[in-house]
Please model this.
Amino acid sequence: MVIVMEELKLGAVEAHFADLVWQNEPLSTKELVQLCEQELSWKRTTTYTVLKKLCEKGIFKTEKSRVSSLISRRDFYAMQSEKFVEDTFDGSLPAFIAAFASRKKPNAEEIEAIRRMIDAFKED
Model:
């Protein structure tokens, strides 16, 4: 399945639902319905509708009434970040970092972590 970034945009409610799945996977559809009832006050039909939509987007799958992810939470948000940098900063990571750091200065620990990442990229 080819994943189109435009299809991976989630609204706030879908993102909350996706986080519930990622935090509890794998889980049965029955468990998911109960969880969504508790956390989101949803009826069974709403849960199944949103689940179907996110399965069609290639984020989750259901097999034998078990729900699991096709894309991890980390990979999903990495793809979202990549798309944001591409759309907003013409794909320039330095431009993104400069804009981010102009409003929120990284602390010494964050700077060291960034240095380690850069060094790891140099080694590859």
